[in-house]
Amino acid sequence: MVTTLSESYYNTMDPKPELLPLTDFKIQLTGANGTAIIYTGYIEVAVKLPCSSRQSQMLVLIVKDTEYNSKVPAIVGTNLLRE
Q1: Per-residue model confidence as pLDDT tens digits over 2-55
Q2: Domain residues for 41?
Q3: End-to-end CA distance of the chain
């Protein structure tokens, strides 16, 4: 599971991190219902969890707006939790 952020929420960020292209990655995302998840790029964010003194760089995929992510703009995936 990956960490995602809706495009609308990304556009409200100030300062807005640079949106990087996914040309180096060949990722096909599928939702639990089998539909494709469309992404526009990714951002790199520094993350520090309360249970750790270490800060890590994480990739967060920016995904197209949907009815679901209008209510839940961020999904924290196991790529973050594993760190």
Answers
A1: 889 999 999 999 999 999 998 877 778 888 888 888 889 999 998 887 887 888
A2: 4-81
A3: 13
Report pLDDT digits (tens) over 10-24: 999 999 999 999 887
CA distance 41 to 18: 10
Question: Alpha helices of the chain — where are they, by DSSP H?
Answer: 7-12, 78-81
How many domains is the chain built from? 1
Q: CB neighbours of 76 closer than 8 A, spacing ≥ 6?
A: 3
The angle subtended at Cα 49 by Cα 46 and Cα 53, nearest 5°, is 90
Q: Are 1 and 80 in contact (CB under 8 A)?
A: no
